[in-house]
Amino acid sequence: MPDVSTEFSFDPTAEVAEEVKAEGEQTAGLGPWQLAMRRLRRNKVALAFLGLFLTIVVLCFSAPLYSSWVGRGPNENNLTGKVERGGEQQDVVTPDGKPIGPGLSKEYLLGADANGRDVAVRMLYGGRNSLFVGFMSSLITAVLAVSMGLIAGYFRGKPDVVIRSGFDILWAFPVLLFAIALGSALAIGGLNLGPIEISGGSLWIPTIVIGIVYIPYLGRPVRGQVLSLREKEFVQSAEAQGMRSLRIMFGEILPNLTSTILVFSTLIIANNILTEAALSFLGAGVQPPNASWGTLISEGVDRLVTAPHLAIVPGIAIVLTVLSLNVFGDGLRDALDPRAKLRLR
Amino acid sequence: MARFAARRLVNMVFVLIAISIITFLIFYKIPGGDPVLRIAGRASNETTRAQIREDYGFNDPVYVQYGELMKKTVSGDLISYSNRVNVREELVRGLPATLSLVIGSAVIWLFFGVLFGVLSAVYAGRWPDRVITILAMIGISLPVFWLGALLLYYLTFKVSLFPAGGYVPLTEDPAGWFSHLILPWFTLSILFIGFYTRLLRSNMLDVMNEDYVRTARAKGLSERRVLGRHVMRNALIPIVTLFGLDVGAAIGGGAILTESVYDLQGIGQYVADSVGSLDLPPIMGTTLYAAFFIVLFSAIVDILYARLDPRVRLNQ
Predict the structure, then answer these.
(1) What is the pLDDT of residue A194?
(2) Is CB count within 10 Å lower at the N or C end of chain B?
(3) What is the pairing mode between strands A191-193 and A88-91?
(4) How far is the C-alpha of B95 from the C-alpha of B101, rounded, in Å?
(5) The CATH fold of domain A119-340
(6) Which pLDDT score is estimated for A55?
(7) Nearest C-alpha of chain B: how many angstroms from A302?
(8) What ipTM does the predicted assembly reach?
(9) pTM greater than 0.95 (yes/no)
């Protein structure tokens, strides 16, 4: 499980600040990271949405705590039970199959589903899975796209031709179609590649599928940037000092790509949470018994007539999460590079 | 220009071949996709299965099987393993619905995307910009199928404003065609309107800072002329590119979610159904069909880009 709160921290800022202090050069101008931080701090809207997002993350990851406080597991059915609402006992699921809606009570805060399961508990567990898929798939995209972009842009020639054609092919693959095909195929048989064995119901299947399909979206801009960065003086001087290629790529060029990667990651997490929901809706994403906001919506859509809250609640959760990431990502882009051309699409 | 077009054509063929090979290998390798069971049914005995394996050439080497499949794809004789329906006929059958959906909503999203983008940039920092920005950010954060399902439920079942899902051919009943498509058009457009608004706004603000815009103002041109002739012309170029790519992807089955929610029986829905059943021939057919449109539109966009922006050289 990734430590999500560090995902957006600005370590380089701290480093720059320490260096400045150590050398006693208080007169030195502000570094680019400090400028960016200052700009970001002024953007109250972006910070507020970052706060909203972190709140959602913390809530979702404390799902087991909430579950034990309420005393209901995410898959615990309760067809015959009653719950106290406003001083009177009400059926969790009425005899004709209508689940209770949201209301003020410790249990069933967001209502029940057709099996009498607590929607609030399921929402938190589902949210944990949605966030997991969103984060980890973005991490996969970032790692693969950045290394491929670095190799292609730095070595040029044959590696570039191979990687660039790979990007072209992946780009031309219809994203959703490819993801559904891969997702539903793997959901049946699982993935079996030598030492790596992933069972069909695993969360890793949609994670890997989503992670792969978006590689060109970051890989192409990274490659372009590396192509121009490698002609800069600092790379030439590193080469002249006899530095190894790997060290130049990761030690010299990579730090210059940080802002691109950071902004892209924020926006791609938002995008991937939506993609996961879409895949789950089409039956090719998260598989039962695991739940995610996408599977909750698709279950809920079938019951809009009797229990509209089943579809509305997880939908609002997705909108809030994705919106907060998009707004923060926008602010981050403005802060890091006000004239940046990088866009997700 | 001709040389560039020729090279793009070669590149297109190469990409399509690569995609067909990858698709084939994925579904050849993946367990649970055994086509023999699909054809013979799960209750079949071993002799029938062996016979089918022989008849359909599943015992041949991989490359022969691939070659046979591609031959059928090109000649249009591709037939589904599970329900024996011709893939090309299914695609042709779904095309009118998909084209109606995509073209209609492309007009809507381009119009409103440009309108809101321009308003947002012209009033940058003031209240129209703020309102539009909030709406655009919400627009790009909505799960399409969720929005579609809610609209369908509340506006057709609860309040009978629109007819419930399904597609009515334009030639049979133009009014019915229109009323059935209003909600799908709107649903598909929202996301794109959000993206185009944001993109055009920031492009226009970038261009407005250019020296030539200051020069144009300094020469005393009217604000309308500065915006129309100097700012818009440049700010719209990336929008044109994006528009081409998006339309290509949407025709190529990118509207899967909207089509499924509204039961439009278009290509997207056919794709979703056949992919879900892991039936190789339809998957191959639809993937290549979709990839064809994506590659075609990106080539058109590149050529158009060079036309619109004389600074771009195609031979680069």
Answers:
(1) 63
(2) C
(3) unpaired
(4) 10
(5) MetI-like fold (1.10.3720)
(6) 93
(7) 9
(8) 0.85
(9) no
